[in-house]
Amino acid sequence: MERVRVAVIGYGFLGKWHVEKVQKCSTADAPSELVAIVEVSAEMRDRLKVQFPRIKIVAEVKDIIDEVDACIIVTPTSYHYPVAKEVLQKGKHVFCEKPMTTTYEEAQELTKLAQQKGVVFHVGHSERFHLVWEQIKKGPYSQALRGPAWVRIDRAAPFKGRATDVDVVRDLMIHDLDLLLYLFDEWPVTVEAIGYKIRTKSYDFVSSTVTFASGKKCFLTAGRNHVEEVRKFDIQGPHGHLQVDMHNCRLKFFGASHSVSDVLDYQKRDHLLEEHRSFYQAILGHTPPTVSAVDGARAVYLVDQVLKAVETGQVVSLAKL
To answer: Is residue 72 part of a domain?
Structure first.
């Protein structure tokens, strides 16, 4: 295979951005070709046929599945499982937006199916593609990630009226649950949480506490009815204080022996484009995806447990996955 033939399934708020990234990935190391767009809305299909006259615009996956190598699934979350299952059964590679599925059991089934078919299954946890995490994990600031620590991650924004089909844990907090696993390379032991329904029938604000056996205690807050946009990561421990302002792309570190803080302004990059490149490189190079189906399933499990903690008001002990 010299070029990955791609279909984008779903042309909503995120779907249009995925279409753009497929078309941009024409570099030698990760070449892709947009072959089709699958969209259930007849009105939208008519508009897309005018906008993309050389691309197949269809209503169902079965109409183009034999003409592509990979599918980008950008449907509402409740459709991720049936659509991904249909694609995997045909032996096609999958890039599925987060959350991978509605339930952990569904995610487990898709993970097994992808393994049986020997295909790449990438899950769209785009926050992993911030340049700063690579710099922290591989550089001198990695010391801040080791051992016991107080951790706080805030992710909030004013109400935008999108993604209201899911709660704020599946919409926003899932990014930070995945980041905890990625940065700390260990599995949490308990979670507790509170939440409020403000704008929708689902939780629009949730605050959770996640603990690790190493002594890390992590406070995660996600909200979509906030007065301002906030995306900030803080970790305080024996090695000092590390802070990342993800909204303004700035890292600060005050070590145990520092007299002044280190300040690093890092480059803002196109996370979604980097995800697409990683996906096509995995397919063409026969390498594991950056965010695997196993990673996606674990994030779904943690989401389920946070919501269980909200509903019961109790501390939830986590199974070892």
So the answer is: yes
Q: CA 239 to CA 264: how far, in whole Å?
A: 18
Say if 70 falls within a structural domain.
yes
User: Which residues are CB-neighbours of 315 under 8 A, at least 6 positions away?
Assistant: 190, 191, 192, 309
Tally the domains of the chain. Answer: 2
- pLDDT tens-place string over residues 197-219: 999 999 999 999 999 999 999 99
- Distance, in Å, from the CA atom of 119 to the CA atom of 293, rounded to the nearest integer, reads 11
Same domain as 104, residue 190: no
Rounded Cα–Cα distance for residues 272 and 276 (Å): 6
* CA 266 – CA 245 distance, rounded (Å): 10
Tens of pLDDT, residue by residue over 141-183, are 999 999 999 999 999 999 988 778 889 999 999 999 999 999 9
Side chain identity, residue 110: L
Indicate the helix (H) or strand (E) that contains 268: none
The reply to whether 15 and 81 lie within a common domain is: yes
Of 100 and 13, the structure prediction assigns the larger pLDDT to: 100
Which pLDDT belongs to residue 168? 96
Query: Could you tell me if 251 and 185 are in contact, meaning their C-beta atoms sit under 8 angstroms apart?
Result: no
Q: Do residues 87 and 169 both lie within one domain?
A: no
Q: How many other CB atoms are found less than 10 A from the CB of residue 230?
A: 15
What 8-state DSSP symbol labels residue 102? S
